[in-house]
């Protein structure tokens, strides 16, 4: 977990201005573009969201979209996109 925390909270970067790098500055939060940790963190959150949505449907707190008598859904997920449908 410490390496994950370091990637998110302790990274620094610089910017090229007219071909010359600026001094390093600390990035307050978030992941850099292309960081290999990004998809892993997204999957953790997406799985948690899917579990919470399924539980909400099971206990009657959320009603998904009904296509026919046998096919219901409340959420579609693909890559880094999530669509939630229902009442």
Automatic annotation (TrEMBL):
Residues 1-87 form the Reverse transcriptase domain. Signal peptide: none annotated. InterPro entries: Retrotransposon-Effector_Assoc, RT_dom. This is Ribonuclease H.
